[in-house]
Amino acid sequence: MFRNATVLLILASFLCFLYGIKNLFLEVEENACRMTYMFGVPQFSKVNIKDNSEFPHYGLFYYYEGRILQDVNRMKLKGAPVIFVPGNAGSYKQVRSLASVALRKGMDNDRGIHMDYFTVNFEEQLSALYGGYLENQKLFLRIAILAVRTLYKEANNVDKSIILVGHSMGGKVAQAVIQDPAIAKYINTIIFISSPIDKPVVNFDPKINEFYSNTDGYFHNKRTTHLPNRQTNVCLNYQDKIPHQGNESKILDNILMISMGGGNRDLLVRDGLTTSQYNDIHAMTSSIPKVWLSCDHLSAVWCLQLVLVINRFIFGISVIDENKNVFFSPDKYYRTQTAINYFVKPLNKPKSNEVYFPKLNSGSSWQEDSKIAFRKVFKNGLRADYNHLLPTAKYKELKKIYIEIDSYEDFENDWVFGCTAHRTEASGLYCQKGTSLSHFVQTIPSHDNYRYMVLLDIHRMLKYYPDWTHILVRLKPTNKPTSLKIDAYSVEDRKYKIKAPKFSLPKLKTLVNETVMGTIHTGVLIEGLDEPFPTVQFDIEPVECGDDEFGVTAKICIPWARGFNRHIHLTHDTKVKTIYVNVPFSTPSGYNTTQNPVTLDLFLNPSCRYKISYQFSIAGTFSKIVQEFYHWLPAHLTAVLFLVLRNQIVSFQNSEDALFVKPYAGFFQSKSLYIVTGCRLLKKLLLNLKFLPISPDTSNYSFYVSIIIHGTAIVLSIVSVFSIWTILTFHGNILHKIALKLTRLSTASSEILMKVVTTLPLSFGVLFISISVGTCSGIGLTLATIFYFLVISNAYKDYLENWAWDKAKGIFKRIRQKIRSTSKNKGTVALSQREIIAVDGNPGQELIPNNENGDTNELDDSNEVANEEKCSYFEGLENVAFHITMLMLLGIMSALNFGLSVAWIKAKYQGHIHEHLPDPFIIPTIITLTCLSVLLQLGAPRKSSGYHYVAIILYLCVCGCILFCQEIVYRLSYLITFVYVCVALQEVCYNFYTLMHK
Description:
The chain is an alpha+beta fold. It is built from 26 helices and 30 strands. The strands form 6 sheets. It has an 8-stranded mixed sheet. Strand 9 (about 320) and strand 10 form a beta hairpin. The longest helix has about 50 residues, at about 775-825.
C-alpha cells in the first residue's frame, strides 16, 4: 500500500509539472509593444581599432541613417556617446530602434542635444550557454570604449563619459568591464535591459560561475550594496536606501546603474534575476510610466514605448556647452532623480509659491460639493476653466479622499490645490489663491489613455495647513472629453486583509460581495506570500455597469522587492478577468509579511459595482514552479540515475534469476524521496561547517517543490530508459545508419572500427580522448555517447530481439490459454466446481484435468523449454541494464557541454578555429572516457563483494547532486566522472585481486 502511494505521488508530481508547462503563459498578456520604425536607411560605419589582433572577428560600429555612406573615423563627433552591448545570440544591429529614435529626437529638440550611438558585434555568440565567451567579450568591450574615446579626443580634444546599454548577457559584460579602474572612470551610466546580473539563468560551466564570482567579489569591495532587510518597505518609501551621492570610499558609486525586467512575457530571464544588489534603480516594464506593459526578451530592444523612455532619460541627463559639445551630467544625485522620474514615477517637487486664480469675469465656473462619491463627465470638453471645491471639514471624519481625472491630453500641469475659500455676494464661493498639490499626483494606465489621480490624507494635510478650508480641482479648457471623479472614504472600510492560502485545492472565497456604487479605490493586504511560486488568484466580476464598459486597473507592490511593481489593466476586451499575485523572490531572513504585506490596489470604474473573490491558484503556482526551478531537473535526474545504478549493482550481486534485466528494474523506487527529505536536514548541518571547500545551495523553499521536481525526474528517467530499450530492440539498425551519417563513417569503416573496439575496448578511450583533445570535450563526449550506443546495440541486438519476441509469445500464450480456459469452464460444471474425489483409495487428492490430447506432461515440458530459453536470454542480457544507465550518465555529461560544442563548431565554421576557447571539462572528459574504456575492456559488471562500497558511495553522490548541483549545474560533470572512476577502480582492483590469487 505504501509503495502504491509512492507511485501515485511520483505520478502526481509529474502531472503537476506538465500542468505547469501547459499554464506557463497563464499570466502572459498579448504583446502590446508598438514596432519602432527607422526614419532612414540603417547604416553601420565600422570604427578602426588599433592593436586589435586578439579579437579580429569582433567589431565596433557607428550607427547612422541615410543612403550616403559615411566614415566615422573621419567625422567630427560632438554628440554624447552611447554604446550598445548585445547579449546571448544578439546582433549588433539590435541597436537600430534605440539609435533611430535618438537620431530623430536629436534633430527635433531645440537645445541641440544629440547622441552618437555605437554598437558592438560579438557575432551572435551564445554567451549564456558557454562562459568562455564572456571574458573575451569583456576584453573587447574595454578596447571598444577606449576606441570611442579616441574618436572624440581626436575630433574635439574633450573628455567625455559614456553610457553603456546592455541587453541580456550584454548587460553582465557591461557591468564586468568597469572592474578595470582605467575604464570605470569613463563610464557615466549603465542601463541593463532584461539582464541576469547577479546570477546566471542556468550555471552551465565553471567559466560562467567564475565570471559572475569575480565580478561580485570586486563589486563587494568597490560599490555600496543595497539589500532588503527586515524593515524594508518600498511600498511606503521607494527611495529607501537609494544612494544619491557618490561615496568616496566606494570608487564605483558614482556610476549610475539602472536595471529593467521584461515582466511576465520574458520567459527566458525570470523577474528575480533582472535586479542586482549593486543597482541604484530597478523597474519592471509593466510599472514604468508610459510603458506599462510586459516585454518579452527580444522585443525589449525594439518596443517603442520602452525605447522612448530610455532615450528621454538619456537626453534628460545630457548637457551642452558653448561649442555645441554634448556631455552627460557628472552629478550622481541629478541623474538618480532623473532616473526615478522616468523609470519609477514622475517627481513633482512641492511648490512653495502660491498660485493666484482669475476672478469670475474670466468665464470660469466655481462649484462646491461635499458628496462622498462624485462623478462629472465633460463629453465635449471644456470651453472655460472649471473649478470644483471640496470642503475639508466635511471629509475630515473620512480621512482619505481620492480624486481622479482622465483625458486624452496630458494633465501634467497643476490641477489640484489646497486653498482657503472666500464667499462674496457678487462672486459666490471661490479661492483667490492656492498651494499646488501636484507633487501628490500619480499616473496609472488605462485602456486608451492615462488616469491621473491624487490620494490625500485629510488629517495629515490639516495638521500642516490648518487654515485650508477646501481642496480645489481646477480643469483647464480642452476640446477632448474629460471627467472628474471623487471618492471619499475611511481607510478601515477599504482595506481588506487576507492570508495567502497555502498549497491546497482551489476554494473560491468572497472578499467583497458587492462594492458600493461610486467606489473608485480599494486595497487588499496579502499576508504570507514569502516565496516566489505561491500564487493567489483574484477574480473581479462586474455585477452591474450601467451604460459604461467594464474596466479595472490593478497595482501590485512587493514591499521587500524594490522596482517590482506591476500594473494590470482589465477591460471588457480582456480574455481573462483575473489578477494573479505572486512575488519575484523570497523575503529577507526574519521578514514579517504581517507587518509588511503585499499590497494590491484596485482602481475601479465608479459607475460599476463589482464582486471580488480570491483563491489559491494551482495553475499559477505550478507555472511559477516550472519557471523558477526547471533548472533543478538535471541534478535530480542524475541523482535518480545514481540510485538506479546502485540498485542495479546490488541486484546483479544478489539475484539468481537476473530479474534486474527488466527495463524498469531499479527505476520504480521510492528511496530517493527519503534522500530528498534527508538532504534538507543535512543541508542545515553543512551550512554551519566553515571548513567545506564548497558550500551547499543556500536556497530554502517549501518541501513540495523538491518533491515535484524529483518526481518529474523519476518519470523522465523511466521514459528515457524505456525509449532506449525500445530503440535498441526494434530500431537498432535504423539508428546505426543514422549514427553513421552523423559521424560520416562508411559501413566498412564502422565495421572495422566496431571490430577493433570489440577486440580491444581500450581503443575506445584512445579514439575519443584524441577527438576531445583535438576539438573540444563536448564534441568528444557527444561522439563517444553515439558510439557507446552503437556498441551496446551491436552487442545486445540479437538478445534483445529474441527477448522481445519471447515476451510477445508469452503474452500471446497467456491470452490464448485464458480464452480456452474460459470456454472450457462454461461447458464443464464438474471441473469448474473442482470436485474432490478419492484417488487410489486416498481421499483429499484433487482431480487434475488432462489437456486436449490427454498428455499431462506436455505443459511441464514446454515450461522447461521456455525456462531454458529465458535463462539463455538472461545470460546474454545480464550487463545491458548497467550499460544503459552508464550511457544515460554519459549523455547528461555531453548535454552539459552543449554550449562548448556549439562554440567550437561555430568557430570552425566562421574560420576562427584559432580563437582561444577555454575547455573547462577536458580533464573530466579524459578521465571519464578512460574509465569507460576500462569497463568495456574488463566486461563490467562482474560479481564481487567490492561493489558494496561502490553502492555506499553512490548514496553519497545522490546527496551531492541535491545539495550542491541544483543551482550550479556544471558540478554534475565532476560527480559523474567521480562515479565512473569509482566503478572502474573497483573493477580494476577486483581483477588484480583475482590474478594475485590464482
